[in-house]
Amino acid sequence: MTRAFIALVSKDLKLFFTDRRAVVLSLVAPIAIGSFFGYIFNGAGDRTEIGRVRRAQATVAVELPTRFGADAAGAFFGGGARKKAEVRLLYDPSRATEASMVQGILVGHVMQSVSKEMFTGPTGRAAIGDALIQLERDTTMRPDERGALQDLLHGAGRWNDTSRAAGSSGAGGGLTIPFDVKKEAMTSRRGVPYNGYAHSFAGMGVQFVLFMAIEMGLGLLLQQRDGLWRRLRAAPVSRGVLLGARSVSTALQSLFILFFMFLFARVVFGVRVDGSLAGFIGIAVAFSLMTASFGLLIAGLGRTPEGTRALSIVATLVLVMLGGAWVPTFVFPQWLQKLTVVVPTRWAIDGLDATTWRGLGFSSVAWPIVFLLGAAVICGSLAVARFRWDAD
Amino acid sequence: MFDINGLTKRYGNVVAVDGVSFRAGEGEAIGLLGPNGAGKTTTVSMIAGLLRPDAGEVLIAGRPLCGDTDPIKREIGLVTQDIALVDDLSALDNLLFFAALYDLDRPAARRAAADALDLVGLADRARHKVRTFSGGMKRRLNLAAALLHDPRILLLDEPTVGVDPQSRNAIFDNLETLKRRGKTLLYTTHYMEEAERLCDRVVIIDHGKVIANDTLQGLYRLLPASNLLSIELEDREGRVDLEQLRALPPVKTVEFADGALRVGVSDLAAATPFVLQWLVDHGHRYRHAVTERADLETVFLSLTGRTLRDR
Known about the structure:
The complex is a heterodimer of chains A (392) and B (311). Chain A is mostly helical and 392 residues long. Chain A folds into 2 domains: 2-42 and 194-386, no CATH class; 50-165, no CATH class. Chain A has helices at residues 2-18, 20-41, 68-78, 96-120, 122-137, 143-165, 196-223, 227-234, 239-269, 277-301, 305-322, 334-339, 344-355, 363-386, and strands spanning 50-51, 60-63, 88-91. A 3-stranded mixed sheet of chain A has the order 1-2-3, covered by helices on one side. Chain A is rod-shaped, with a radius of gyration of 33 Å. Chain B has 311 residues and is α/β, with parallel strands linked by helices. In chain B, helix 2 (91-101) packs across helix 3. Helix content of chain B is 32%, strand content 29%. Chain B has helices spanning 40-47, 91-101, 106-119, 135-145, 165-180, 192-198, 216-221, 242-246, 268-281, 296-304; strands at residues 2-11, 14-24, 29-33, 55-60, 63-64, 76-79, 153-157, 184-189, 201-206, 209-215, 227-233, 251-257, 260-265, 286-293. The longest helix of chain B has 16 residues, at 165-180. Chain B folds into 2 domains: 2-221, Rossmann fold (3-Layer(aba) Sandwich); 227-293, Alpha-Beta Plaits (2-Layer Sandwich), CATH 3.30.70. In chain B, the strands form 3 sheets. Chain B has a 6-stranded mixed sheet with strand order 6-7-8-3-9-10, sandwiched between helices. A 4-stranded antiparallel sheet of chain B has the order 2-1-4-5, with helices on one face.
C-alpha cells in the first residue's frame, strides 16, 4: 500500500514538474501580481502634488483668499465676532487621506505664523499697548490683579522689542506644537519598516494555491471519465490511498509554490520571516493541506467539470477577497473584520503576516494552524462522503 | 477461474445488466458479445470490482471479491476500453507506475515491464513518451499495463476499438500468446470475427440479458443452416416456386429478395450442384452464385431478429 501511495504521489509530482509551462505559470503569475500589489501597498506610488492654486497636475490644491494674512490675524485677536477668512482645500477624491494630512499641516503653519505676529510683529505690539491702556482705565479690578497683568503685558512687550531688535524675522518665534511625532509601523523590530510585499505575496500565494486546488478537483472529475481512473480502481488500492495520494501531491505542489514565492520575495524585495520560522512553515503546511482537501471537496460535490468550474472559481475569489488576499483585512470596516474571522483564507494570510512582517512568535499562529487543519479534515471528510465512486 | 451468478445492475429504472450468469474455466477464452449498450462494460466493471452489483455475485477462483484492497484483485488484469495511460510519461514509466499499484518492488517491476514491452513489441520505444505513440501502439501498451502483475484472468473490454488492421492483428497475436500461456480471457466486442478468431466459447448479451452461451459449434448448431448459397437470377422478378425448392432434401431455408435467392444448406459441397441443376431444370438462368459460411452475426440475427452493428 505504501508503494502504491508513493507511486501515485510521485506520478503527480513528475507530471507537474515536467510540464514546464504549468510550473512557470504557477510561479510567474502569483509573483508578478504579488509584486504589483506590494509596489502599490508599499507606498511607492507617485508623490502627492500640492499646489497653491488648482492645477491640472496637483492632486491637492490650497486656495488662499486675498488679504488672508490680515483677516486671519484680525480673527485671531478679535475673537469669534470677526468673520474668519476661508481657505479652500481642493483634492482628488481618491486622495482624501492626503487632503486630511495637508489640512493638518496647513493649520499648524498658520497658527505658528499668526502667534509669531502676535509676539514679534506690529499687530501684536499694538494689541499689547491697547491692553495696557484698558487696564489703566479699568477701576473695577483689584490692584494686585491689575499689577500682575501689567507685569505680564510689559514682559510680552519687552520680548517683542527684543525679538524685533534681534531681527528675528525668520525661523523661531510664535507658538509651535511642543513635541515631534515620529511615525513608525508596528513591525517585527524597532527601525524595521513595514514591507508591503510580505502581505501581497502571502495574499497572492494563497489565491493561486487555491486556483491549483480547483484544477485538482476538476482533474479528478475529468479522470473519472477516462480509462485511467478505472484502471486505478481495478488495482488492490484503497479509496483512501487514491484520494490521499492526490491530496498529498497537491499539498506538496502548493508548498513548493508558497516557498518559492517567499524565496523570491526575500531575494528581490527583502521580505523576511522575522517571526517564528516554525510558525511560518506550520501555516504553509496547514494551508496546503486545507487547499488539497478543498480540491477534493470540489471533486466530491461537482457533477461535471464544466458545471463545477465556474462555481468553484467564484467561491475561491470570494474566499480570497474576504481573507484579505487583495487588500489587508485591517483596512476592512470593523464589522467585516469581525465577520471574516471564520474564513479559512484569512487564517492563512494573517498567519503568514504574523510570522513575516509582524515578527510574532509561534503562539500567535498556533490557533490558525489548528483551524486550518480542522478545515482540512472537514473538507476532506465531506469530499470522501460525497465522492461518486461508481461513476460508470 | 471465475463465476458470475445472477449479476444485476440498475441505474434508476433502467436495468443495465439483468441476471447475467456464466463461468470461465482456467485457460478458457470467453467472448462477451453484444451490441453497444447491451451491458458488456457494466458486466466487466462488476467482475473487476469497479461497480457494486445490485444483485448476484462474482466469484474469483471460487471466492467473492470483497472490498477495494482484496488481494484477489491481483488475479485480474483489466484492459479498459479507453486508453488508460499517462500521456506525459514514457512507456516504461507508465508500466513502472502500474506495477507499483500492485506492490511490485523495483527490480520485479522492471523485469515485468521489460517482458510486457517485449510481448507487445514496444521494447524499442520504452523511453518514449506515450504522447508520441500512434493509436495502435497505445492500445498495445494498454494491454501490456494489464499484464505486469501476471494475472490469471484478463478482462479485455473492446481492446481493439479504433485501431488499424495491422495493430489489431498484432494485438490478436499477443492475446493468442497469452491464451497459450494459460490465461483466462474475457473478451468483450461487437466484432464477430474477433470472437471467432480468439474465443472457445461465446456469451451473447442483449438488453442486459444473456441470450446464448455456448461454444462456437454449439451456437452454429442453433442455426437451421450452417452455410448459405446466394444466387443472383437473370429473371429479377423471381418466378421460382420457393415451396418446391424448400422441399428438396439438402435445402434447409429459402428466401428471395432483390433478385437473389438465399438458400440455407448444411452440406455445401453436396447441395450446391444439386440446387443449381434444379434451377436450370426448371427454366431459371442465373448470373452468378456465391457461398457464405454462417457466422456469429448470423447467429445474433437469428436469435434477436436484428443485426449487431446497425444498432
